[in-house]
Design brief:
Blueprint: H1 2-10, H2 14-36, H3 39-55, H4 66-87, H5 91-102, H6 112-125, H7 128-139, H8 144-151, H9 155-177
């Protein structure tokens, strides 16, 4: 199905590429959101992913699925965005986060939103490769083979990054949730 849509897109049918966007934009957006924790950044990365994919569609070699190829583009864009952030920290956002964290009552800690926030923070604290692998495996439902292709590493490396990432998440969440 995807290959047919790709061929039609390459032949000038813009509607065919729109179908691909509709099919994958949600999974790409939520992957970017998990990587970046910012809705605006995730939306930007999602849009840029499809722009880059459209521009490079003729270079798609069909060695992997279209979805895997999109993930690869999105993860690379997320990595770039994270690098940009670390070069220019936004001190106002950090202050706002600290203030918001101190305003929580003990009862609010039991709330699902709090738990979700802690999970997201723990994911963000993982080393880049572990974070990417965990997000792709859990939220993207990718196989180790797909993850290896997306992250350009060996399957065993993807498997090891996932297991180390999960171990680090458990450790971080155990400390926070006590």
């Amino acid at each position: 199905m995807d290959l047919d849509l790709i061929e039609r897109s390459l032949n000038g049918e813009t509607e065919a590429f729109s179908e691909l966007v509709e099919k994958y934009q949600r999974v790409i957006y939520f992957t970017a959101l998990r990587m970046l924790s910012e809705q605006e950044d995730a939306a930007d990365v999602t849009q840029q992913t499809f722009i880059n994919a459209f521009r490079s569609l003729a270079k798609f070699r069909k060695e992997s699925s279209f979805k895997t190829w999109l993930y690869q583009i999105a993860i690379n864009l997320c990595r770039n965005r994270i690098r940009e952030r670390t070069q220019q920290p936004d001190f106002e956002e950090i202050e706002e986060m600290d203030i918001a964290a101190t305003e929580r009552t003990p009862f609010e800690k039991l709330d699902d939103e709090y738990t979700s926030d802690q999970v997201n923070r723990a994911i963000q604290a993982l080393p880049e490769q572990q974070r990417s692998t965990v997000i792709l495996r859990i939220y993207g439902e990718c196989s180790y083979e797909q993850i290896a292709h997306i992250l350009e590493c060996a399957q065993e490396t993807a498997r090891a990054n996932y297991h180390h990432g999960v171990r680090n998440l458990r450790k971080a969440l155990k400390e926070v949730m006590i």
